[in-house]
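hey all, quick one before standup. I had two proteins in the batch that finished overnight and I want to keep them in one place so we stop losing track of which output belongs to which input. First protein below, input sequence then structure tokens straight from the run.
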Amino acid sequence: MIIPRSAIRALLVAALVAAAAPADAEYAGPIVDAHSHVPNATAVDAYVAAMKRHKIVKVVLLGVGGVQKDDAAWIAAAARKYPDLVVAGQPVPDPTSPQAATRLEAELAKTRARVAGEVHVRQVSRKIDRSPADPAFVKLLEVAGRQKVPVVIHQELDAGATTALEAGLKAVPSAVLVLAHAGSATPAVLDGLLARHPNLMIDLSGMHFQRTPALATEKGPLDPAWKTLIDKRPERFLIGVDVWAARLFEPAMLDRLMSWTRRILGELSPEAAERVAHRNATVLFRLE
């Protein structure tokens, strides 16, 4: 049978359209924002309104590494106002203080927080360079391990910081460390770390189109190396929006960030998307 040229042209056009169309639908399931902050006592109201618009079922509010002296009060007030939506983290201002472990144990006894942090371990812009293998930090991790409270850390990895992180992970295998913003590391580095340390989790917070490194631009596809790693180890990743500055709480910006998050999750396999979006956080932070 001879196929008319017009039919061939139509088939080619259809194929080109299909190739140009997005391959993945936006993820439509529930999301737990596993890493965000509040910059004042009232910002949570705008964030909760956006949560309801975008089907975000929980937000984990963390301290900002001792930068904001009122973190604990703001987070506690947000949890009281929105008890079904806000998960209150326990701030840890200085993990290398000799009193850090004792203070954390006392605070956890009062607040019953299910996560501690965000702890600033290595942050180049603030000239902070600490080690999770520091004796005081190890004692803090021992408390966290006994209490089954994961510790979220901000640690920008280079060779030295990676060695220190591994030493801390080995020192207290019962403690789970959550590496915020993927440690600003490459997927290849993280793949090795995850293979060696079962008590390490990675949160993808703040890796959106306004920050570097980013998983994707605002409209572009998920970086292939990140997609490969997350699909390979979906049980080890959490998603987070990581709002912190007041300007990020404008409704239009929140809509952009949350829509981007759903789009990126939609590029993962369905199983990986479910795990990263909410199932891992639900288990890790004991939300059920």
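OK second protein, same deal, sequence then tokens:
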Amino acid sequence: MKPSIFPPDLAFEPVRTAVVGLGYWGPNLIRNLNDIESAELRWICDLDQSRLDTFGRRYPAVSCTRDFADLLADPELEAVAIATPVSTHHPLALAALEAGKHVFVEKPLAASVAQAEALAAAAARRGLTLMPGHTFLYSPPVNMIRELVAGGELGDIYFISMSRVNLGLHQSDVSVAWDLGPHDFSILRYWLDETPSHLSAMSRSCILPTTPDIAFINLEYEQGAIAHVELSWLAPSKLRRTTVVGSRKMVVYDDVSNEPVRVFDSGVMLDDPQSFGEFQLSYRTGAIVSPPISPVEPLQIEMADFCAAVRTGSMPRSSALVGVEVVRMIEAVDASLDSSGARVALAATALPAH
């Protein structure tokens, strides 16, 4: 029997789904949609016949096709999950929405803010779910830190420093900011409940002359927090490390560690001066706690949330509006880079808190 992450009273008929794109990420979508109770995988689609043959043998009950139109013509198919190159997200997702299908699109939602907004508007007009694949919003460590921030345990957030680097994979159609940036931008949006007011960036194209493969991005928030994001396809080892510093406590989130979340009861206090010109700092170094983390796969939770949104009309945690905001942040990175690292203002869309 397939596993269900929903209580019995929330059980519903499985959503009849298809996966388009069998490259790097598509197989993960196939595996999870095939495994969870809330989905029924009906179709897989890819232009490469050899890939179709491979997965067709692995999932013999699933129909295979090289023609996307076959999916759209199936009246029983309810939802499409798209894991294709970014440049194809808008035309494929728009065609699916116009055919009355709910749509899941791997990050980023589209190749421009205009395209992302057009998709969100098309879904809203038809009453369909459009969900970008920001998988880290379903990561147990990320959600634990979200609870710490929202609950005030860390105090006021001073700054967040994020490093997402590894050796490869160089992408042919997007920069490192478009490839890796959506992960950290969506996490920051989730933790801080706001889009940055200003952003500046610098980068370098080391291997391919017109494709930045390293980027350093600074973000400013109206509530006072600042953040720094380091992205790179050129690093000697894989690093997924984030530091969150608050007025009360600090957190280190290391996605590749056996202890992904470590909470430090540490900080600095400025005591009242005893006389004019005097000040005294007191440093607090307390306990370090590594809370237990659920081992559930984030993608499984994400796919279940998509199916629940399709069936119940609920807004998924990774909503279309969040997808638009992430693309807006990436476009701001490009605008800053085009202006030699200038500080760029973002006109944020007001998003509902999740």
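Flagging for whoever picks this up: Residues 223 and 309 are 31 Å apart (CA to CA). The first strand starts at residue 15 and ends at 20.
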